[in-house]
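re: that chain from earlier
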Amino acid sequence: MIDNAMKELEDWVGNNHTELADWAKDARSLTEEFKAGDLSEDEYKELMEDLKRSKKISDAADALAVRSKAVELIDNIITSAGVIL
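^ sequence. v structure.
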């Protein structure tokens, strides 16, 4: 399930918002670290929340709709990881 949520984010970025490619890679990296046990649930949640508020997404998200979709996709990944928001 987490892989499906991550793929949805990467597809959205790849098809519509290539300027967010590095941002999506950061989400992938954090998710892989969490799955490997290198990050605790709290650390993962905090870092993913930071990613939602990062300068990368703010700079790329001129439109509220883009920012909202990006935040929704990150929330889907966090939820799919079994982390309680």
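The chain has a mean pLDDT of 82.
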